[in-house]
Amino acid sequence: MEAEAVPSTSGVSSGSEQPGAAETPGRLLIFNTLVDKFLEGLVDAGSYQRFARCYKKFYKLQPELTRGIYDQFVAQLHSSIKAEIQEIKEEGNLEALLDSLDKMEKEATTETEIPW
């Protein structure tokens, strides 16, 4: 699965925007960024050194092959997790729901009167 570029969620506006015009990032963008950070943390936690320690005898015999297996494992794990999350997003119509929440929040901030 192709990796998606995720724009920055820092909230820092560029010099061309008007003051006060900076918008908070949408929930879908935050969700995607969270997933990407989770995957980075997962790969960091499962470092090559840890992998090599688990398969110490094999690593001592064939360190290059061990590295290749680790790289394939991490790539497959990453793509599998991304595919699962994409499937969950599609099954639950998550993108539309998060966009709807963003729209409701934006509308609620413009209203001054409580509807009930």
TrEMBL record:
Record the organism: Pyxicephalus adspersus
Query: GTP-binding as a keyword?
Result: no
In the UniProt record, does the keyword Cell cycle occur? yes
What's any one GO cellular component for it? Answer: MIS12/MIND type complex
Biased composition (Polar residues) is annotated at: 7-17
Which residue ranges are recorded for the region named Disordered? 1-22
- Report the protein name in the record: Polyamine-modulated factor 1
- InterPro entries registered for this protein in UniProt: PMF1/Nnf1 (IPR007128)
Q: Which domain of life is it from?
A: Eukaryota
Q: Which PANTHER family match?
A: POLYAMINE-MODULATED FACTOR 1 (PTHR15459)
Q: Name one GO biological process term.
A: cell division
Specify where it is mainly localized: nucleus
Keyword terms of this UniProt record: Cell cycle, Cell division, Centromere, Chromosome, Kinetochore, Mitosis, Nucleus
The record's subcellular locations are: Chromosome, Centromere, Kinetochore; Nucleus
